[in-house]
Structures are given as structure tokens and as C-alpha cells.
Amino acid sequence: MKKLLIGNEAVAWGLYNGGIGLVSSYPGTPSTEITEFLAKHDDIHSEWAPNEKVAMEAAFGASLAGMRSVCAMKHVGLNVAADPLFTLSYTGVTGGMVVCVADDPAMHSSQNEQDSRHYAIAAKVPMLEPSDSAEAYAFARSAFELSEKYDTPVLLRMCTRIAHSQCVVDIGEREEVPLKEYVKQPSKYIMMPGYAKQRHPIVEERTEKLKALAEDCMYNKVELADNREIGIITSGCSYLYVKEVFGDDVSVLKIGMPNPLPEKMIRDFAAQVKKLYVIEELDPVIENHVKALGIAVTGKSLFSAIGEFSQKTIREAFLKEGYPVKDIPEAQGDAPAVPGRPPMMCSGCPHRGMYYTLVKNHITVLGDIGCYTLGAVAPLNALDSTLCMGASISGIHGFNAARGKETEKKTVAVIGDSTFMHSGMTGLVNIAYNATNSTVIILDNSITGMTGHQQNPTTGYNIKGDPAAKVNLEALCKALGINRVRVVDPYDLKACEEAVLEELAVEEPSVIISRRPCVLLKYVKPKTPLQVDMDKCRGCKKCMKMGCPSISFKEGKARIDKTLCVGCGVCEQLCAFGAIGGKNE
Amino acid sequence: MRTMSVMIVGVGGQGSLLASRLLGTLLTDEGYDVKVSEVHGMSQRGGSVVTYVRFGEKVYSPIVTEGECDYIISFEKLEAARYAGCLRKGGKIIVNTQEIDPMPVITGAAEYPAGVLEELKAKGFDIDDFDALTPAVEAGSSKAVNIVLMGHFAKCTEIPKEKWLAALEKVINPKFLEMNKTAFERGYGA
């Protein structure tokens, strides 16, 4: 069956046909669709976990029980799951285990650029890296066998450009893999020092075996051309850009297994070309390996360690090297300078009312990861920091511990419902246990919004949309040791302000749950769009201060775009002249 | 044949991903090697969005860079100007004349550039601008702007209309198929 597939769907098909039995993940762009596509199959177990560490450990449990298992995450998710990964390298697997990790060069939707290849090297586990959807399918499909044969979890590295670009993939049939027998093996699966010491040499031996595999496998390949003036070692999407520019005119060593790297293959290739280049996005991982072999090579001195590459990157670099590059496209002309169009919180976004309240009262806000991070941009400029999942709550504790009374009455942490489940809870325990007078606002929009509406343990539904246990946030926060917990509707500005000022004033830690479902959820029906009464509007621009995309300012008056407005009514509460309403014409 | 490149650009939420899926499906059915590339996540929330569609005998790169694009299909005027530098000499820009203010314009930090399409035309760009919003609303939904534009673009290709309609049936939810077919026809006739 031939289909046009994004890389993530191709991975999902490869894993499905490769005999997967369980997938557990936390959503993270650009990895999310791998799990979403797998969840469509009812003959395997699929789930959203509260975070990546839990997901990887669930996959470990399934593997221990003899089932082929997977977890998928974005690069920063692998930081969260790094703890089990490093020890899983020692225990190895029973059922094959694959960890899909998607990097995001250029940070289309991430807080840093991070090269996950370092984790494969540091944890001493094999990593595969496809260049397009067809390879994503083939590599994923073969990964379970690789995992079982070498007794190791396998990392499958994607990046935004591979995960979200489509090409035609030929999908085969599913291989039914029976559960392997469960046998108690304490010295393999209990990693206390005595047993772990016995496992480390096994890991080193495995790396030697994998190095031998790297010399002769489907993942790495040499494409020798008549032209031996230059040779290029490359991988992932950089391979595509190299082929786009040079076609079959130059010699290429394509690396599909970035860890461990082949030694002999690289030496042989280098010996056959006059000048050797490494072209790889992000860090000089292959380049450093080649240099360590004592081979002269040009890499990051010519290609940046920042951002995504393209065919243009390759063309410009080789022109600079004085190499004749053919078929350079001729542009019609330059694009004129136009205003930027940054992403923003949607019309009617429930976070806006709470942010408006915080900004109005000049409150310092430690932020977190999610749609609500968009409150950081103009005109709200509501946030003071955003580090990683859960850091708002852990951070406010340290912030207030450092400055005490000076900050605790005018500083809050904000965190989403899904992020609170991911890694906010432990931070809140710390606030209660180590006692700072901190105020935490849970922006509960009843969904994981940022990644495109995945369920989480607070929504009452599982990955299939079936009813599931629902965490009661009020009861949870109390159980974690917070006595003051209250709920407000962020569309009600008066209630928001009362809640924030009261909780900041009290002499004990508190939680405000700002609860209103995301406006993009299907069950949330928009209300009648509001309108501006032009006679009453004085052009004071107060309504413009909260950055609603529905409101613009033309000819000295505010205007509301009927096609965008969902009638949330927050601007109506702001207008001192009663100019905004639902019934005015 | 050389590899051909199309860019579909607009504002997050306007339906450019569906338009690219339609074009990708059609070109695959036509027997081309096809690569489609898009970006999801935070960048979709009301931000500037670009999707690349490339086709030919053998396509390597999924992305389109300066001077490589044969057709830019823009869902909004400002976005046409933003990506115009990608247009190949002799290429064409199809643009919906709708204006959507970006946040810097809303906050007053910038102005929506007046006469931006005229400026491009004066520079020698081949611009085919028309109102795609009205026919979309007439067809049944302002959300059908994407299919109106694809209908208009269909005339620029040598692929018969029936093939386009067949691809439409593959990618559109049956509930909305008739409305989208009407939108396509309106665009084709515009």
C-alpha cells in the first residue's frame, strides 16, 4: 500500500508493522503524531503518560514483560527521561524497545536547540536517523529486531523537517510478535551496584558489536561518484540538501546510524576523495568522530551549529569554497520589508483575562511551557521567565526564598493543567514542605493545548477519547500540603483580581485554579461576537492592552472583527464608556 | 523535468495544511515524486505559516529557498509580500486580497503596508490577486478560502479539473465535500 505520509506517520506504521504492543508518551512538537497515529490501532495498548520519564518507564515495564514497546518525545522530553535511559542501557531489554526522539533545529516550537545524538553517545545506545518518510518507515520497522538482537533500547532520531514532511511510503503488513516468556533475572534487571558493575562491561562489549554492525548495515551507505574532488559525509535532512544541490555528481557517505559511527567505512571513504566535508545540523558529532580518527575534515568552520540547513546553505558554503555550483536559481526580486506576524494567544483564550489582571497589578510572573507562554509577547508582556516544564513552580519557591517579603506579595507562578501533571506537582510539594509564601496559578484550560489538544489526567478522557479517571486539582493541591486552594473563571476580571490580591496578601502558600476550557475545543461553542458602539468609543485604547487579535484600532476607534471574536466578554468589562457590547449595531 | 516548487502561505488557522495535502495527493496520483513540508505547533497559532510542495521525477529537499518557487499561493496580502523573495524569475503569485492585521499592527507598533501588491507588480512580479473570501462565504463557509484558492490555482496547471475533484474527495471529510466542491468551482471560475 503506497501512501503520502508525514515522517511521524511513517514511523508509526513502521513500529506497528514491526510488532509494537505498547506505546506510552507525553505529547511534544514535533513528535506528537507518532503516538497519535499508533493510538488509532485498537490491537495495541496506547496511552498518554503524565511525563516522558513515566512514559519511558512504562515502556520498560512492557519490555520487561516480553512485549515490544515504544515511547516518543521531543528533544527536551529526553532530558526528563534521561534517568531511566542511562540505566536501561545497562539492563537491556526483553521485548524490543524503541525510544523516538524528535529534535527541533531552528526552534519552530521549542525553548532550545538540542542535539539528541549526545544522549545516544552518553548512554551508549544505538541511534538511527532517517532522511525522509520512506526511511523513517524502514528504520522504525527494523528497530525492534536491532533492539532484541543487541539487547538494548534503540533511539530513533527525528527532526522537525523529517517529522513533518511528506513523501510516498510503501507500507507492508504487520508482523505479529508473541510475548516473550517472562523470566526473573535479578542480575540483569536490578541495577544496584553489585549487579550494575557486572553489566557495564556488557555494555562496552555491545558497543564493539554495534561498531562492527555500523560498518555493514542498511543504515549507512556510500554513494561513490566519478567526481572524487570532494567527498561529503552527511546525515538526516542534510543528506537531502546535499543531493538537491549535487545530485549524483559528488561522492557521499550517508550516515543513518549516528551512534556508534563506523570507523573503517569513514577511513575508506576519506581515502577515496581529495577533500572531505561533514555536513550535519546542530553539533559537530560526526565531525568530531572523524577528527578523532586523525582524518582532516572541514565541517563547522564552514557550516553553522545554529538552526536548520537548506539547499541554500550548501550552495553558499561551496561557492565560498570556490567550488563551482550548478543550477543556482534566479529570483524574481527581493521581498519588501513587512511587519512580522508572530504567533499569539487566540481570540477568547481563557488565559488572557488572568494575564491582564497580573499585568494590571504589576505582578512578577514566573512562567512555564505551553500556549500560555505566548503571554510573554507584546502587548501583554506578562512573563518574567520560562525555563522548562514545571520550572515556574520550583522557580518561584527559590525566588521567594531569596528575597522573602520583598517578592512574595507580588510574585506568582503560572502553569498549565497538563504541565502541572507533567512536573508541577513535585514543585508544589516543595513549596508546602519547605514553606515559602508562594502563590501558584494553575491555568486550567482542560486540555494539552500547545501540541494540538491531547487529553491529560485532568481532562477525564484517555488517548482514545474514552472516559478515564480525572484528577481533582483542588483535592490534589490540598493533599500536597496547600491549605488555600480556590477556583476562578478567568473571563471574570473582577473575580480574578480579587483572588489574586487576596492570595498574595495572605501569609501562607496558595493555589488559584484559573479554570475555563480552551476556546478551540469542539464542545466549546462561541458566543455572539461583540461590537463597538462608535458613538460611545472614546478611542482610549484600554481594550487594546490585552492583545486580543479580534480588536484593532482604525480611524481613532476600536473595531471588533466579527469573524474572529468568540464573545468572551473580557473587553466589555474593560471599557469604561460602555462602548463594547453584544447588541449594539 | 526539473523539480517544480509551490509555496502555500498564510496565517495560522486559515487551512493551508489542508490545501497542501490536497495538492500533494493530486500530484502523487499524477505519478510524480512528491515532497510536502509543513511546520506544526506554536507557529500555527495566528502566526505566519508556510507549506512547501515540491514535485518532479526525483525530489530530494522538502523545502524551498530564495528564488526557487514557481508558484506562491497566498491566503493573505501581507504574507504574499513576506515570501515574494522565494519566487523564481518567471514565477507567479496567486493571492487572496484579504487583509488580516498581525499583532504589531494591532498594537500600533507597525502599519499594515498600503499598496504592497502594487509595489510588487511595479517590481515586475506576476501577481494574480482576487477576493477569495466572498466566494468562500457564498459557497457556505469563510473557512473554504483555502479550496477557493486551490480552485483558482488549478487553472494554472495542466492537470484536468476532474483529477482535482477526485483528489478533493480523498482529502475532504464527506460531510463538507459538497461545500468544498462549490468553493473549488468558484475559485476555478474566478
From TrEMBL, chain A:
Name the keywords, alphabetized: Oxidoreductase
Q: What is its EC number?
A: 1.2.7.8
Q: Kindly provide the name given to this protein in its UniProt entry.
A: Indolepyruvate ferredoxin oxidoreductase subunit alpha
Question: Which organism does this sequence originate in?
Answer: Aristaeella hokkaidonensis
From TrEMBL, chain B:
Q: Superkingdom of this entry's organism?
A: Bacteria
Name under which the protein is recorded: Indolepyruvate oxidoreductase subunit beta
